[in-house]
Amino acid sequence: MAKEKALKEKEEEFSLRKTEPITKVDVNYKGKDFHSLAEINDSMESFEDVLNRMNPKTLEVYLENIIETQILEPALLRASHISKGELEKLLNKRKPSLQVDEKKFQAIKAYVKEEAEKNLSSLSRVRNFLAEEVRL
Amino acid sequence: MKGPFADFPLEYKKKLVILWKRANNADREHFINQVTYALATWGFDKVGKEIVAIVIEKMLEDGSTNLSDFGLYVKQLIKEGLTDVYSNRSESIKKAAMLIDSYRFKHELPLSPSKGL
Fold this sequence. Notes:
The complex is a heterodimer. By secondary structure, chain A is mostly helical. Helices cover 67% and strands 9% of the residues of chain A. Chain A folds into two domains: 2-66, no CATH class; 82-135, no CATH class. Chain A has helices at residues 2-13, 37-43, 47-53, 56-81, 84-92, 102-118, 123-135; strands at residues 14-18, 26-29, 32-34. A three-stranded antiparallel sheet of chain A has the order 1-2-3. In chain A, helix 4 packs across helix 6. Chain A is elongated and about 60 Å long. Classes of the chains: A mainly alpha, B mainly alpha. Chain A binds chain B through residues 47-48, 51, 56, 59-60, 63-64, 66-68, 70-72, 74-76, 78-80, 82, 87, 90-91, 93-95, 98, 101, 104, 107-108, 111, 129, 133, 136, and chain B through 3-6, 10, 13-14, 16-18, 20-21, 31-33, 35-41, 43-45, 49, 52, 92, 95, 98-99, 102-103, 106.
């Protein structure tokens, strides 16, 4: 009974008012309006509750946004900064004969250049990560 | 254009984001670093991202509650035939598994998946 009451209170706390356009979510939480994904992300106290109340289409867009930008992107950025030499150095610790494919290395270089131009702030983090790992 | 997680079941997307939100910074870093090695080795193009999505889907399907288990599932999927499905990346998938294995060893990450909250 107490659990049901608590759940009802939670439901009242979070009220999804509209779900379109799907790139923006308009959520009312404790009387405050949130108009952007970032705002919701930063301010939410009960993340799962809000997810459970989202329109499935909105939810899908929101989740994909988090997966792409927060979860996958940092790894992509770091991967793009691992040079052929660094990768070989790591691999050679286990099996000296392994080589990094030249075509892939060229693709990595092109990606690094592109990413470096648009995301300079992440470079020092990437460099530190690599410096640490290559020391193995 | 469809992203690598476009065919990911909605429930799994939700589970993944919730695990990500709950994860501590160390586990997040371990997860990102293992995915980094994977992408850097087997490629970060569309297919490379698709393989990452498959590994994550396997983790969630198996009930892992810690994203830093990523590398364990690369190895498990290799045993289950991942390298046969992606035969043109077979060698690089195996290289990635070796790299991730070294990483996990260096950081003393568990040998079996975490399944409790």
